[in-house]
Design a protein that fits this description.
Helices cover 32% and strands 36% of the residues. It has 3 helices and 11 strands; from the N terminus they run αααβββββββββββ. With 222 residues, the chain is an alpha+beta fold. The protein is elongated and about 100 Å long. Helix 1 runs antiparallel to helix 2 and helix 1 runs parallel beside helix 3. Strand 4 and strand 5 form a beta hairpin.
Length: 222
């Protein structure tokens, strides 16, 4: 006669492994039921399975079934959310958005907008430099409180000379108490395209002058 304790121990171990890995090499629900039925058929009539052991195995079966059901529901929810994000991202094509960045694209005769992440109050100064690192414009935004300090560059150098179209570096300093601290910058650019990655990944926006950025990094839609 088959040793029932050995069967039960093997079954418990296999079910614990299956619930953790989800591999088809381990026991599934149908395997569990088949083994349980076989366990009943081969048990010693003089030493039947303890009721507590039987209830423990039923509880494991119920737990694994519930976990698998939750996993299916979560996968469906993730796919639905990604599809919704993709649609929202597609609607942004052709629109201008403000995203984190240190490079801005200046169109011929155009302007550049952006913002500064001011952590603490102080005098905010934005610097625009060209591809060679030469400072072309310094924008003093004055005293600003903590928060987002927006700026606009008219595309001209400090002496009023119009600058050629192209990409320009943007940086910012916040002065307070005679000392300065670098601050994060945002730039405004047009969304030219959207890429959808693997399941669960946020859609990627292609922003002129900035490059690739995710939807959740959009600070403002202009």
């Amino acid at each position: 006669m088959t040793d029932m304790n050995a069967i039960g121990n093997s079954l418990n171990t296999a079910m614990a492994t299956s619930s953790g890995s989800g591999s088809r090499d381990q026991l599934g629900q149908s395997d569990f039921l088949k083994l349980m039925i076989e366990q009943f058929r081969n048990q010693d009539p003089t030493k039947p399975m303890e009721s507590g052991e039987f209830m423990s195995q039923l509880a494991q079966f119920s737990t694994v079934s519930g976990i698998q059901g939750l996993q299916t529901s979560f996968n469906a929810l993730a796919a639905s959310l990604q599809a919704d994000q993709a649609l929202r991202a597609a609607d942004l094509v052709g629109h201008r958005v403000m995203v984190p960045g240190s490079t801005a694209n200046l169109a011929a005769g155009g302007t550049v907008g952006g913002g500064v992440d001011v952590q603490a109050g102080g005098t905010v100064v934005v610097k625009i430099t060209d591809a060679s690192g030469q400072l072309v414009r310094s924008l003093n935004l004055g005293e600003r409180p903590a928060g987002l300090a927006q700026f606009a560059w008219d595309g001209k150098a400090d002496d009023g000379t119009p600058m050629p179209a192209g990409n320009y570096a943007v940086s910012a300093q916040v002065w307070s108490g005679g000392a300065s601290q670098a601050a994060g910058t945002y730039v405004v650019g047009a969304v030219s395209g959207v890429s959808v990655g693997a399941t669960g990944a946020a859609p990627t926006l292609q922003v002129d002058g900035v490059g690739a950025t995710t939807l959740d990094q959009v600070k403002q839609i202009m």
